[in-house]
Amino acid sequence: MNNFFNFSFSAFLLISAVGISQTKIEAKQEARQEARQETKQKMETLKIAYITTALELTETEAQQFWPVYNEAEVKQRELRRTRMGERKDAQQNFKTMTEKEAEFFVDKEIEFKQKELDIIKERHGKLKKVLSSKKIALLYKAEVDFQRKVLQELNDKKGVKEPGK
Q1: Handedness of CA 79, 153, 66, 39 (dihedral sign)
Q2: Are 119 and 71 within 8 A, CB to CB?
Q3: Are 145 and 54 within 8 A, CB to CB?
Q4: Whether 136 contacts 49, CB under 8 Å
Q5: Which of 37, 88, 117, 142 is deepest in the core (most CB within 10 A)?
Q6: Whole-angstrom distance, CA of residue 80 vs CA of residue 71
Q7: Residue 41, Cβ neighbours under 10 Å: how many?
Q8: Helix 99-127 crosses helix 133-158 at what angle (to 10 degrees)?
């Protein structure tokens, strides 16, 4: 009877420890997810401010511009998410894939690039109705400048130096 009690108590402790450990892991994952979401929101806020300032958008222009811009961003994000899933599958099987599977993968990459270009062209056409060509050109420059600025700040935090400096 005593051995049964010891065994039961040990099993209970083990199961409890596993449960507590699992809860801690889930809590850490949740905290990481929340931190990622918070970082994304901060980045979006910074990007909006950067682009608004770079384009010197009037209130009227901003009201017409941001819905068009955001719609295209959502479409691109969804397209990239789909692409990442397909890429992940292909990369896991890259060494074992047949020539036909590799051709399919390459064709999908070209298809992705075409869909991405279609989204950009659609956005460009809509933007021409609400902004001058000069401001659209400034938008393209501001997007590149913002990406460079973000990458530079990330590299600075990591201690990575620019090539040639």
Answers
A1: positive
A2: no
A3: yes
A4: no
A5: 142
A6: 14
A7: 10
A8: 130
Q: pTM score, two decimals?
A: 0.71
Q: pLDDT value at position 60? A: 93
Contact 100, 71 (CB under 8 A): no
Rounded CA separation 73/123 (Å): 9
d(CA 54, CA 144) in angstroms, rounded, equals: 12
Q: How far apart are CA 104 and CA 101, in angstroms?
A: 5
pLDDT of residue 14: 65
User: Cα(33)–Cα(26) distance, rounded to whole angstroms?
Assistant: 10
Q: 3-state class of 163 per DSSP?
A: coil
Which pLDDT tens digit goes with each residue over 102-136? 898 889 999 999 999 999 999 999 999 999 999 99
Please name the residue that has the structure tokens 């479409």. Answer: 75
Q: What is the DSSP letter of 165?
A: -
Residues 163 and 88: their CA atoms lie apart, in Å, by: 30
Query: Helix (H, G, I), strand (E, B), or coil: what is residue 100?
Result: helix
For 26-38, what is each residue's pLDDT tens digit?
777 888 888 888 9
Residue 165 vs residue 85, higher pLDDT: 85
Residues 104, 54: Cα–Cα separation, whole Å: 41
